[in-house]
TrEMBL record:
Keywords: Endoplasmic reticulum, ER-Golgi transport, Transport. GO terms for cellular component: endoplasmic reticulum exit site; ER to Golgi transport vesicle membrane. InterPro entries: Sec16_Sec23-bd. PANTHER family: RGPR-RELATED, SECRETORY 16, ISOFORM I. Its main location: endoplasmic reticulum. It comes from Cryptomonas curvata. It is found in: Endoplasmic reticulum. This is Sec16 Sec23-binding domain-containing protein. Gene3D superfamilies: 1.25.40.1030. Belongs to the SEC16 family. Residues 16-141 form the Sec16 Sec23-binding domain. One of its GO terms (biological process) is vesicle-mediated transport.
Length: 146
């Protein structure tokens, strides 16, 4: 997933070059994303603003990593979008691999991880009835269960 063939890559590179020659970083970044050129998209967005970077990171993550995978989980946290893991389209897959997802969150702390750990605990408790697992998440988040 997220790969490109050589012809698409070359067309994308030509489009990027034309836009960058005109100083159009935003257009070049969009073109890079459309062509699946994630390294250039991430690099360009890092020279734009934080919102652009997090948008590109989140889109890269969604197109590249499977629902519920620990890589998807941690990359969404890196993009500042960890709460998206609890959208109806994502949450069941996250819960299916909750132990691995919990491990990757705790091993790679981020500014929003406490809120995400609490949401993981809430989902485990409410959707799966896994009280002990939920309490572990609350403990790691530094909150008391409500």
């Amino acid at each position: 997933a997220g790969g490109t063939d050589e012809a698409t890559e070359q067309r994308g590179a030509a489009e990027l070059q034309a836009m960058l020659t005109k100083g159009d970083r935003e257009g070049a970044c969009r073109a890079a994303m459309e062509h699946g050129l994630w390294a250039p998209a991430l690099l360009l967005s890092s020279y734009m603003n934080l919102a652009a970077y997090t948008q590109v990171m989140a889109e890269f993550t969604r197109r590249t990593f499977a629902l519920g995978s620990p890589l998807r989980t941690i990359y969404l946290l890196f993009a500042g979008q960890g709460k998206a893991l609890f959208d109806p389209t994502e949450v069941e897959a996250v819960l299916d691999g909750w132990q691995q997802n919990l491990a990757v969150i705790v091993a790679n702390r981020t500014p929003e991880d406490h809120a995400v750990l609490q949401l993981l605990g809430d989902a485990l408790w409410q959707l799966r009835g896994q009280v002990e697992a939920a309490q572990l998440c609350y403990l790691l988040a530094g909150v008391s269960p409500e």
